[in-house]
Amino acid sequence: MVGLGPKKPPSRKGSMADVPQDLITQINRLEELFTVPAKKLKAISDHFVDELTKGLTVEGGSIPMNPTWCMAFPDGNETGTFLALDMGGTNLRVCEITLLEEKGEFDIIQSKYKMPEELKTGTSEELWGYIADCLQQFIEYHHQEEELDELPLGFTFSYPATQDYIDHGVLQRWTKGFDIEGVEGNDVVPPFEAALAERGVPIRLTALVNDTTGTLIASAYTDTEMKIGCIFGTGCNAAYMENVGSIPKLAHMNLDPELPMAINCEWGAFDNEHQILPRTTYDIIIDKESPRPGQQSFEKMIAGLYLGEIFRLVLVDLHESLECKIFEGQDLGKLKKPYSLDAGFLSAVEEDPFENLSETEDMFRNKLGIVCNKPELELIRRLAELIGTRAARLSACGVAAICKKKGWDKAHVGADGSVFNKYPHFKQRGAQALKEILDWPAHKGKGKNDPVEILPAEDGSGVGAALIAALTLKRVQQGQNAGIRNPDSMLKCSAAQKKAK
Ligand code: BGC
């Protein structure tokens, strides 16, 4: 077809020729602000290692390093039918997963329910009531007129929770823009179970799971090299398998130090004390205006929820700046609305395949009512690249830190989330940063067959949560009840599983 540009993003070399000096000065300033050189990446990673270690001590640090009581990798012989519930930011997903006799195989049925926006700032009764309604609908739809034994459930609750038991979790704080009163500081399981009981829904919560732990376990189901599970999505976090002997805050339990224990790092909280991350004024504004200022410092610089907002804040600032006025004389009403641009918008800017950035121009015109000239479009594109690149490079610091802490020269990392799956060049930029931090030879850092390789994960909040529920039931059957609050009621569940087989 005539008139279509190339598919691959063209090199933008030379495209700055028409950009006036004041914009060039601004672009240089932004490059300075948002670029994280190799030396800084290394310093961040080293500090990160110390903070991971500190989080495991009795005194603790700002990274929570939550023991999850998921104490084994699957061996592929897990069987049975499990429910999995994923309370994500936009959707609620319910799955029924049957782990089959054939090693590593499973059947899955699933339904999605919209998570109403008002719920995120509503009351806790509304939240649990809505979730229980969805589960009830799912069961009624898929098991019409069946006599059901209690089904075991793996509940993926992707917020920081302190877990003394796997079937328990005290929400430390809401993240990702959630702000529901009366949940922080409390165990989320009893009100959830009460809402199910009120409706007579035959479900037994077997494991409360973080999405990163689910990702780790689901990915390890099919890949024995898997050592870390990561989410690069609306939020950002990782989990890995530690040995109990390296977790001083569990010493009082006198467990076998060789036992494995999945740790949900909650690394979004890294550097809440602002010692090392190169925060810009824009990052500071994001934090100040957020429902939880002072929290999730690292996450606020890299996660999908914030990327579009950082971009928006820079553009508004440049419009108002005295040295350079972009979008001069135009109505910026739409752009001035907080969180009006998401990471998808930024992705689309980076993905614009046309030399003249005509897709970006259309997006600004159609979505924001702003008409951009060519130099402004060049600045917009460069800014998106800088923000996206910084996110990928900082994310790599966390991955490198876990590897360094554990002394792993080689590892597979299972990653999921909208930023990892959809944001252009995120994977390559992350691989390049890992190479710089870990000093790999020149031909590495391409993402494929690198010593530490970040790979697309298996379905963590579905299959992962089901596997963790299965592993928990297996432990109960073997009488290994450490970190399980309600082993007796779980035994009933596992007997029903056996009967069903
Ligand atoms: C939450 C984590 C979660 C991550 C990715 C963060 O905001 O605190 O629990 O794993 O988002 O979903």
UniProtKB/TrEMBL annotation:
Domain Hexokinase N-terminal, by residue range, is 27-221
Q: List cellular component terms (GO).
A: cytosol; mitochondrion
Q: Which InterPro entries match?
A: ATPase_NBD, Hexokinase, Hexokinase_BS, Hexokinase_C, Hexokinase_N
What reactions does this protein catalyze? D-fructose + ATP = D-fructose 6-phosphate + ADP + H(+); a D-hexose + ATP = a D-hexose 6-phosphate + ADP + H(+)
Instruction: Please name the top-level EC class of this enzyme.
Output: transferase
Q: In which pathway does it act?
A: Carbohydrate metabolism; hexose metabolism; Carbohydrate degradation; glycolysis; D-glyceraldehyde 3-phosphate and glycerone phosphate from D-glucose: step 1/4
Iron as a keyword of this entry, yes or no, is no
| Location of the Hexokinase C-terminal domain | 227-471
In short, the EC number is 2.7.1.-
An example of a GO molecular function for this protein is: glucokinase activity
A Pfam family that the UniProt record links to this protein:
Hexokinase_1
Q: Name one GO biological process term.
A: fructose metabolic process
Which SUPFAM superfamilies does the record match to this protein?
Actin-like ATPase domain
Q: Report whether Coiled coil shows up as a keyword of the record.
A: no
Record's keyword terms, sorted: Allosteric enzyme, ATP-binding, Glycolysis, Kinase, Nucleotide-binding, Transferase
Q: Which domain of life is it from?
A: Eukaryota
Question: Member of which family?
Answer: Belongs to the hexokinase family.
Report what the protein is called: Phosphotransferase
